[in-house]
């Protein structure tokens, strides 16, 4: 498929809006009570592993391009995109099927009582700050990744480099904070 002269701005815009909207709606849907056929409790760890691998690939990608290993740079980024797609599909599946989890909710009643608040203390604010920035940037990063990828496939290197300088730090932050969020909330999973 020839991407050089194709204007994919509208499809990228649609994808960039649909994905965050679907994920947001997912959090307001009632728990369906459907069994997955496997223990879905392994998925958060799987997500952390995917995020870790993505962060490593992004760091490698930066190293590769700074050292002119263009093919390795391309491969690292394409694998990072694939891992991000796998993450998104698995994440949506998990949050559709799993009961809600709340940071600090030791008894899993989805109410953070005074004792639970005291137990987690101010770490709760650190967690919510990291989570909020992670979520916002995870939504914002979608068009950046897609446009960066498109510019590379089009061979528009000046635009690719310009947008990659914005995309890389955001994407790396999202990948790393995804792992941090997992580590912080994992004690509260059912």
Automatic annotation (TrEMBL):
Keyword Nucleotide-binding tagged: no
Entries under Pfam families matching the protein: DUF420
Keyword vocabulary terms for this entry: Membrane, Transmembrane, Transmembrane helix
Ranges that cross the membrane: 12-30, 42-65, 77-97, 125-150, 170-189
Protein name: DUF420 domain-containing protein
């Amino acid at each position: 498929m020839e991407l050089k002269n194709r204007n994919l701005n509208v499809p990228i815009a649609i994808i960039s809006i649909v994905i965050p909207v679907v994920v947001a709606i997912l959090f307001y849907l009632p728990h369906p009570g459907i069994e997955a056929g496997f223990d879905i409790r392994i998925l958060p760890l799987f997500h952390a592993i995917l995020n870790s691998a993505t962060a490593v690939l992004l760091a490698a990608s930066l190293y590769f391009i700074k050292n002119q290993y263009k093919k390795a740079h391309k491969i690292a980024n394409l694998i990072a995109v694939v891992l991000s797609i796998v993450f998104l599909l698995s994440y949506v599946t998990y949050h559709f099927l799993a009961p809600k989890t709340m940071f600090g909710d030791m008894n899993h009643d989805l109410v953070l009582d005074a004792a639970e608040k005291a137990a987690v203390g101010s770490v709760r604010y650190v967690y919510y700050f990291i989570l909020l920035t992670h979520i916002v940037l995870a939504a914002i990063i979608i068009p950046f990744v897609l446009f960066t990828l498109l510019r590379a496939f089009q061979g528009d290197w000046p635009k690719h480099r310009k947008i990659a300088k914005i995309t890389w730090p955001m994407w790396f932050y999202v990948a790393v904070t995804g792992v941090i969020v997992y580590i912080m909330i994992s004690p509260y999973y059912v």
